[in-house]
Design a protein that fits this description.
The chain is α+β, with helices and mostly antiparallel strands and about 270 residues long. About 55% of the residues lie in helices and about 10% in strands. The chain has ten helices and four strands. The longest helix has 25 residues, at about 235-260.
């Protein structure tokens, strides 16, 4: 046995393995120590104080600061225990929250420098549809359940509409609407109803039109012509819209760069 020990002691491979085991043990001990070690340093305290000030608009007193630190310690311990138990694995809420935080980092860029007035005007002209006022209509209606009933009500209204609010059936929404665009009207009553009403050029009682709710005798009270927007009254809004658009472009570019770092493979379904 002593001769075997002396032989092993002279074997460099044995020493190499022993050294590796020793380093692994030291690293594991350090890892275990770090897993149960919570460091409370000045930057952390300053962060807790800043968060407190952001919520309360004042600095915490000594007792409140102790409570903040103790709250952080409690949260840190619970988070580490949850990670050790694997509670964060395949958790949909945690996955979404982490994704939201990365999206925030992607969008956290300095606001782009505004172009000069000529550049903003050019952008305004290219995106004029965002600012021009479309054709709008003001209208009122009487709701009934069937097309036949709506036609009869419409005949009466064309002769005399003094008591039009008392005619027809109760309706869950309003009976009168002012200055609605076709998109707004389609959201409210359905695309076919909006298209039929906007196709009418003459004011007065028209229809009957069918909506998502039933049939209506409709009075087109006023058709408001489209208006072309002017740059000067909207200059501040145009500048804000330009910056928001550029920020979205930058965020999309950052996402495309990030996505390019990953290889997406579609596994065939057998």
């Amino acid at each position: 046995m002593p001769q075997l020990l002396r032989k092993l002691a002279r074997d460099r491979l044995v020493w190499f393995i022993a050294l590796g085991v020793l380093l692994f043990a030291i690293d594991e001990a350090a890892r275990q120590r770090d897993a149960t070690r919570i460091l409370i340093d000045l930057p952390l305290v300053e962060k807790l104080v800043a968060q407190w000030e952001g919520q309360t608009k004042r600095r915490p007193n000594a007792q409140e600061l102790d409570a903040l630190i103790e709250g952080y310690i409690r949260e840190e311990i619970l988070v580490r225990e949850a990670q050790a138990m694997g509670l964060d694995d395949d958790d949909v809420i945690i996955r979404r929250r982490l994704a939201q935080k990365v999206e925030f980092f992607l969008s956290e860029n300095d606001p782009p420098e505004l172009p000069d007035e000529a550049g903003l005007r050019a952008w305004f002209d290219e995106n004029r549809a965002l600012y021009d006022t479309p054709v709008r209509v003001s209208w009122q209606h009487v709701y009934v359940a069937s097309e036949g009933a709506a036609s009869k009500v419409l005949e009466k209204l064309r002769r005399d509409d003094a008591d039009w609010r008392q005619m027809g059936q109760p309706f869950m929404l309003n009976r009168t609407y002012a200055r609605q665009s076709q998109i707004e009207l389609a959201r409210l009553m359905g695309g076919d109803f909006a298209a039929a009403l906007f196709a009418e050029q003459n004011e007065g009682w028209i229809g009957p039109f069918r909506s998502a709710y039933g049939w209506h005798a409709v009075k087109l009270t006023k058709r408001h012509a489209a208006q072309q927007a002017e740059f000067d009254p909207l200059a501040e809004r145009v500048a804000a819209d330009w910056q928001a658009t550029q920020a979205r472009v930058a965020e999309q570019a950052a996402w495309q760069e990030l996505r390019g770092n990953y290889q997406i493979e579609l596994v065939p379904v057998e």
